[in-house]
Amino acid sequence: MSSPRTIAITGASGLVGQALTEAFAADGVRVLRLVRHPVSKSKPDEVYWKPSAGEIDAEKLEGVDVVFNLAGKGIADDRWTPAVKKLIVDSRVNSTRLIAETVAGLTNRPRALVSASAIGFYGDRGSTPVDEDAAAGEGFLAEACQLWESANAPAWEAGVRVAQTRIGIVLSPKGGALAKMLPIFKLGAGGVLGSGEQVMSWIALPDLVRALRFVGDVEAMHGAINAVAPGAVTNREFTTTLGAKLHRPTVLPAPAFALRLAMGEMADPLLLEGARVTPQRLTAAGFNFETPELGPALDRVLA
Ligand SMILES: NC(=O)c1ccc[n+]([C@@H]2O[C@H](COP(=O)([O-])OP(=O)(O)OC[C@H]3O[C@@H](n4cnc5c(N)ncnc54)[C@H](OP(=O)(O)O)[C@@H]3O)[C@@H](O)[C@H]2O)c1
Questions:
Q1: Contact 283, 131 (CB under 8 A)
Q2: What region holds the DUF1731 domain (predicted)?
Q3: What is the pLDDT of residues 74-109, one digit of tens each?
Q4: What is the dihedral of CA 195, 198, 204, 207, to 10 degrees?
Q5: Strand locations in 57-108, DSSP E?
Q6: CATH class of the 6-171+202-229+277-290 domain in this structure
Q7: 226, 228, 50, 29: which is closest to 132 by C-alpha?
Q8: Is the Cβ atom of 170 under 6 angstroms away from ligand 1?
Q9: Whose CA is nearest to atom 23 of ligand 1?
Q10: Considering only CA atoms, which of 293, 279, 278, 284 is closest in space to residue 130?
Q11: Domain residue ranges of the chain, discontinuous segments joined by +
Q12: Element (H, E) at 180
């Protein structure tokens, strides 16, 4: 286990990318950010790339210790039309393939490529716990995650250590699912979604940042790694806990049909289905979660 001196991040402007950048910078690690706009000389830590065109300034990545690949169009930003679904997949597969090929072609390769994936890989699993050995599930997200993970192949075929971190629902008031829920819950209009029995496998943003850094540092961390807290909960438990933290009632349920009407196809995989994902490999490797249970995790991120 050793800490990096220089790292590179794709998707650096995103929720996770920003938090990871700040954490490394606070420790004096140089962070190169891959950006999709022209780079000026006054910003030496920006590296130009354009995944949709297969363009990247590869030379600037020579000698980087670890690459974190977090890029991708937000999955809940727009209704899932065929064009949006294509962009969700392409924005991940093209960027991952480009960074994996680039890393493979460097003279001084990084010691690890830590790529994002998602627990959507597992599909809808009811309440049965699933660890990294579980097979892929069914549906659009599960298929997208498989394509996304496979796009790392050029790097691992070249002998680079590759980890696909299957990230759970990231808890932060700054973005993602919790940021969407907060205004509704604060109005006292939060409630159980559908049956409320679907399992939500979450991770607090500070623990995700620590987990990504751990995966980058620890030689044994390669292949699929679930980045979720141990304390997954049902949607009903999540709703009650969040309502209690905000001192608001949560008596207004959102029936499945209404969610489907409002959100279309994404309502089922994103809100009405779930999987009890376990962080088997992180835990076995000695990673300690600062907030393994939901209540303290919400206290931490909402503080
Ligand atoms: N947040 C969650 O709950 C969650 C859960 C599971 C998995 N994940 C995955 O973890 C990764 C990071 O999540 P996040 O919450 O930080 O995502 P995010 O806030 O949506 O940021 C993703 C970043 O990807 C880049 N991007 C956006 N559209 C793109 C496109 N069409 N082509 C290439 N790059 C594009 C952007 O960065 P630039 O503008 O800097 O290029 C954007 O800031 C994502 O791949 C996400 O799918 C997140």
A1: no
A2: 254-300
A3: 999 999 999 999 999 999 999 999 999 999 999 999
A4: 170
A5: 66-69
A6: alpha beta
A7: 226
A8: yes
A9: 11
A10: 278
A11: 6-171+202-229+277-290
A12: helix 176-186
